[in-house]
Inverse folding.
């Protein structure tokens, strides 16, 4: 079946290769402040603001110094997850396309339901962590749900001839 | 919508896998149609009609709830 807006099947493997290491790296960056020292570098900042008590340090369209471990982890994770989520299956057909669309709707609902819950119950830096995770969760929920449904329908085939 | 795809398949003595390959869809699609979990597109219905050499109405039919 001809598909629109999807990557070729081989991109899926590339996606997993990017996604898994960057997810592990991202986990340590977010929860243990891990960073590679050699990635301290000058970056071009469109807008950068540090919250330091009594001292505002805002930079607009200028060069700033930043450790880019987190940026690299986030970008690789997003590219990997997009590839895993939106590459063609080996055998594409309309049933798979429908499953994909339904999973995307489902993932969007779940993602924003959880976000609404967190808006009500998480505050300050706690909410910042939620927002950081929320950048990635819609893709994660989609991938889990889509592959789970494919796995489940595949499994139900065992009972049929 | 209901269908008698399974009966047609039995008459032709063909497995889901073989039918899926002939029509160019996944086995999951054929299985889901037979279980009334998935309503195929018109294109797929016409392909099945062509394959079984029967009109679409003979394979697929409406229920009262439709």
């Amino acid at each position: 079946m001809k598909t629109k807006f999807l990557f070729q099947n081989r991109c899926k493997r590339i996606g997993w290769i990017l996604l898994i290491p960057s997810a592990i790296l991202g986990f340590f960056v977010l929860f243990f402040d891990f960073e590679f020292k050699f990635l301290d570098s000058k970056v071009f900042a469109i807008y950068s603001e540090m919250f330091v008590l009594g001292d505002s340090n805002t930079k607009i369209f200028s060069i700033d110094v930043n450790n880019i471990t987190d940026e690299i982890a986030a970008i690789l994770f997003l590219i990997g997850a997009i590839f895993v989520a939106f590459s063609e299956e080996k055998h594409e057909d309309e049933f798979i396309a429908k499953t994909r669309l339904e999973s995307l709707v489902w993932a969007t609902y779940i993602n924003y339901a959880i976000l609404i819950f967190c808006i009500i119950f998480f505050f300050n830096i706690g909410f910042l962590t939620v927002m950081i995770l929320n950048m990635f969760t819609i893709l994660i929920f989609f991938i889990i749900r889509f592959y789970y449904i494919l796995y489940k329908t595949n499994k139900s085939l065992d009972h049929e001839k | 919508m209901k269908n008698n795809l399974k009966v047609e398949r039995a008459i032709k003595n063909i497995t889901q896998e073989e039918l899926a390959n002939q029509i160019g869809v996944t086995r999951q699609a054929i299985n889901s149609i037979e279980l009334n979990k998935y309503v195929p597109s018109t294109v797929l219905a016409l392909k099945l009609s062509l394959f079984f050499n029967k009109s679409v109405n003979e394979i697929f039919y409406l229920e009262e709830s439709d």
